Amino acid sequence: GYPVANNPEELVSYFTEDVGLNSYFAYLSYMYPYWFNPKNYSLPEYQYRGESFFFTLQQLLARYYLERLSNHLPDVKAIDYNHPVLVGYYPELRLQNGVEAPARPEGIFARNADIMYVEEIKSYERRIHDGIDYGYFAGYNYEKYNLREKDYTNILGNILEGNYESINKEFYGAFYRNLISLFGHIVDPVHKYGVPASVLEHPETQLRDPLFYRIAKRVLSVFYHYKSHLKPYTHDDLYLPGVTVEDITFDKLVTYFDTFDFEINNALTFAKPEDGADFSYVARQYRLNHKPFFYHLKVKSEKEVDSIVRVFIGPKYDAYGREFSLDEKKQYYFLLDAFNYKLSAGENDIKRSSKDFPLYAKEAP
């Protein structure tokens, strides 16, 4: 992060430029990359590939919003093709070949690139929206997917990412990837000046660019548009018979900044590999941390039953102090903890430590 912020976006640079977060996102991106066909490598298909794509973007944007809220910043607006990009970015990075990663000035418009046109991307988005409104998606062989019969979030996620599981990439394109490419090369769309790929086009550095979250919001808006057509959950869908959550209490959450050292050995070159074997090179960065905490759940059950406990955290008020409605704030919640628990008949006092959360890891050695 920046020691002194020169613009509002730099107030949350401790989050967007966090080494661990960017590494984790890169890992998720490369685990099943959009260009990867599992069948060619005798690997099992990722059954929930599209849903995972949606969940990752939603959780990431929710956490990003909470960091903005903590710094009194409003929510971001989705990227718009018809208006200039109002957020510039200077990454202060060099690529592995020594070339400086390109900066992006404010006020620049998205223009047709040598490999795609703005109108082409608009057409893909319109086709997806039309399919949602009509209630059908069309496959490669003209098969119909009735969107009103079941939840096809997974299929929609594959379509939007444009991966190998997409039911019709030729017709629906790769909306997410197209946006990343279009805005990632916005300063030199036709490669006239030989500008290299920006940080937005590399999974290892995408999260550093504030524009990424505007793109993610545009993609998520398609998901939410689809979900608005689904039937709402009924009481029976969500109710676990005989089980009542009577109370939940959290310790006071205390966050602070500390320094974090990480190895950069692979950023250095030596005439002989053995020359660097006896040295360890590290860089130091400020990062957001928190003190360990506990939370308690009091649950009453009429009988012994297996359960899954999920705990979410989210905002109550927006950046202007206005209270959110449940429908407004649901997209800003992210998963804090999830675990299996066998409830006993009677009172159950559940105590969980932040160190037990499955979504968080210990410090790397």
From TrEMBL:
Pfam families: Hemocyanin_C, Hemocyanin_M. Residues 5-223 form the Hemocyanin middle domain. InterPro entries: Di-copper_centre_dom_sf (IPR008922), Hemocyanin/hexamerin (IPR013788), Hemocyanin/hexamerin_mid_dom (IPR000896), Hemocyanin_C (IPR005203), Hemocyanin_C_sf (IPR037020), Ig_E-set (IPR014756). GO terms for molecular function: nutrient reservoir activity. Residues 232-363 form the Hemocyanin C-terminal domain. SUPFAM superfamilies: Di-copper centre-containing domain, E set domains. Keywords: Storage protein. One of its GO terms (cellular component) is extracellular space. This is Hexamerin-like protein 2. It comes from Ceracris versicolor.
